[in-house]
Write a structure and sequence with these properties.
The complex is a heterodimer of chains A (294) and B (274).
Chain A: H1 3-36, H2 42-46, H3 59-90, H4 95-109, H5 112-126, H6 133-157, H7 161-169, H8 174-202, H9 206-209, H10 242-252, H11 258-292
Chain B: E1 6-9, E2 12-15, E3 17-18, E4 28-39, E5 42-48, E6 51-53, E7 57-61, H1 68-75, E8 84-91, E9 94-95, H2 103-109, E10 110-113, H3 124-134, H4 140-153, H5 157-160, H6 173-186, E11 191-195, H7 203-216, E12 221-225, H8 229-235, E13 238-243, E14 246-252, H9 253-258, H10 263-269
Parallel strand pairs in B: 3-14, 7-12, 7-13, 10-11, 11-12
Antiparallel strand pairs in B: 1-2, 4-5, 4-6, 4-8, 8-9, 13-14
Classes of the chains: A mainly alpha (294), B alpha/beta (274).
Protein name (chain B): Phosphate ABC transporter ATP-binding protein
GO biological process, one term (chain B): phosphate ion transmembrane transport
GO molecular function, one term (chain B): phosphate transmembrane transporter activity
């Protein structure tokens, strides 16, 4: 067999594999959307869930998902940013940084159910936070931190060493160089990483089942005082998210339209995650243009 | 000053020939004494002793790995976290190679332009203005003026004056390198260090860059590392020849190119090695 033929076969095989992956994705998306989209309505997206009767919605779960996401990001982003800047810009390669990197790697490969059970024992029980948004946000932080740190570190890595030297040569300190030269240039790719990890956090269920809990008490959307128990902003209330809701109605849902609600919720989840992904691309590109005035 | 000492290395005799500049019109502004640079345990530069006259261009030439870039980068302490530099670097009578020196302040006096153009991902205007703003120059009028003068000195003003708010990343290689020069001189240094600034440029841009440097020496002392011997011959008053981490010969550029005193220098400038 000559090399030209070999090349053709290899290319064919690679195209085949790539095609297969796309096909699987499209089939999954198609199935979820086809069975879920018909269930969607304004009522479904806003009404509270019903435990025994037909016609419940996912309004509270949807709100919980976003609220939890924002809280988790607010906690994990500053930590991840600091860790990544330290690891990539300041730390020298020695046993300390190797240990930190290994720890991050291990943390990122922990099964999320383990993170959830740890969160249950530590935040819910030990720190007495109970099943609450806060417990869930901390658990999600554990889940999210390694991935986010990695992704920010990768963003920093894309900036040439010459950019840093350029800053230093102008008499800027290392910190000024990082904050004025490096970070502005990486904002788009950091933001892309944040949005993509937001998608993962948004769809996370296992880490939340035992931390944020599986119940979604009715919320009073007219009450925005975070200290009131029925306020949507209260971080100490239990909060079932959309992903947890899907898991729950599929394992123990007893409402007559459980299947329809599960399909509808799955479609909402998938659409949200797709939106995150598209937003990541769009915002990243736009922001890059804005910041570099390209 | 005339130093002529023999260094025995194995069985080969190596000769050194160093004539420090001594021109009353160009007092010495920067000099190094007994400068050694170590990367870990490996010594990359041995006893670099050179003096530089103000408002002159000095070329550092030599084969790859001869230590010329290492030497240059030591002059504004860019090697601080990378290498160990021992010895004295005297700048206007102050040894800037001591820990007590404010290295950030010092680098504003001793600016640097790199091999690959490295404009920041900002507008052309901000590339020049942002370091000034950080140091407290916030007056818009003053900034405008500095940006304009710097760009004019770097011979870039006419090409970009209508595009100051466009991204610097859209500039061609030659333009980007001149922007980097403008950026470096905007903070008003005394000395400009250039590390093979033309090696990534085409011949036309290189020619323009050389003209720019010749203009700039009225205001700045320029030390340039170059692989291009014609370039060294065209623009510099003094030339130092580096080989294997040592300065083998230092003299006026015309001497180095027409009447080298060291065999290796002679071989190198005539293209027999390197």
């Amino acid at each position: 067999m000559n090399s030209k033929k070999q090349n053709k076969i290899a290319i064919g095989a690679l195209y085949g594999i790539a095609g297969l992956v796309v096909l699987i994705l499209l089939a999954l998306l198609g199935y979820i959307l086809a069975s879920g989209l018909p269930q969607l309505s304004w009522h479904f997206l806003t009404a509270p869930a019903k435990a025994f009767l037909k016609g419940g919605g996912v309004g509270v779960q949807l709100f919980n998902s976003f609220y939890l996401l924002i809280l988790a990001m607010a906690i994990s982003f500053p930590i991840a940013l600091g860790a990544a800047i330290y690891l990539y810009e300041y730390a020298r390669d020695n046993w300390v940084t190797t240990t930190i990197r290994t720890a991050i790697e291990i943390l990122s490969s922990l099964p999320s159910v383990v993170v959830g059970l740890f969160g249950f024992l530590f935040f819910v029980v030990k720190l007495r936070l109970g099943f609450s948004i806060l417990s869930g946000a901390f658990a999600l932080t554990f889940f999210n931190l390694p991935l986010l740190t990695r992704s920010i570190e990768d963003s920093l890595r894309t900036i040439d060493l010459e950019q840093r030297e350029g800053g230093l040569a102008l008499g800027l300190s290392r910190w000024e160089t990082i904050t004025r030269v490096i970070l502005p240039a990486t904002v788009p790719s950091i933001l892309t990483g944040v949005i993509l990890s937001a998608g993962r956090v948004f769809g996370e269920a296992a880490a939340l089942i035992y931390t944020a809990g599986q119940s979604a008490p009715a919320l009073n959307f007219a009450d925005w005082n975070p200290f009131n128990i029925s306020s949507p902003l209260n971080p100490m209330r239990p909060a079932e998210t959309l992903a947890v809701h899907i898991w729950k109605i599929n394992s123990e849902g007893i409402m007559p339209d459980a299947k329809a609600i599960s399909s509808g919720s799955s479609a909402v989840l998938i659409i949200a995650i797709l939106l995150f992904n598209f937003a990541a691309r769009y915002v990243g590109k736009r922001l890059y243009k804005r910041l570099t005035s390209a | 000053m005339f130093i002529n000492n023999d260094v025995t290395k194995g069985t080969v005799m190596q000769e050194r020939h160093v004539v420090q500049p001594n021109d009353p019109g160009h007092p010495i502004i920067l000099s190094t004494e007994d400068l050694h640079v170590f990367y870990g345990k490996k010594e990359a530069l041995f006893e670099g002793d050179l003096q530089f006259g103000s408002n002159q261009i000095t070329a550092l030439i030599g084969p790859s790995g001869s230590g010329k870039s290492t030497y240059l980068r030591s002059l504004n302490r860019m090697n601080d976290r990378i290498a160990t530099v021992t010895g004295k670097i005297m700048y206007r009578g102050v040894d800037i190679n001591q820990p007590a020196i404010d290295v950030y302040e010092m680098r504003r006096r001793v600016g640097m332009v790199f091999q690959r153009p490295n404009p920041f991902a900002k507008s052309i205007y901000d590339n020049i203005a942002f370091a000034l703003r950080l140091r407290g120059t916030t007056d818009k009028h003053e900034l405008d003026e500095i940006v304009e003068t710097s760009l004019k000195q770097a011979a870039l003003w006419d090409q970009v004056k209508d595009d100051l708010n466009k991204s610097a990343l859209a500039l061609s290689g030659g333009q980007a390198q001149r922007l980097c020069i403008a950026r470096a001189i905007a903070v008003k240094p005394d000395i400009l260090l250039l590390d093979e600034p033309a090696s990534a440029l085409d011949p036309v841009s290189t020619g323009q860059l050389e003209d720019t440097l010749l203009d700039l020496k009225q205001h700045y002392t320029i030390i340039i590392v170059t692989h291009n011997m014609q370039q060294a011959a065209r623009i510099s008053e003094y030339t130092a020849f580096f080989n294997q981490g040592r300065v083998l010969e230092y003299d006026t550029t015309s001497q180095i190119f027409t009447n080298p005193q060291v065999q290796v220098t002679s071989d190198y400038v005539s293209g027999n090695f390197g």
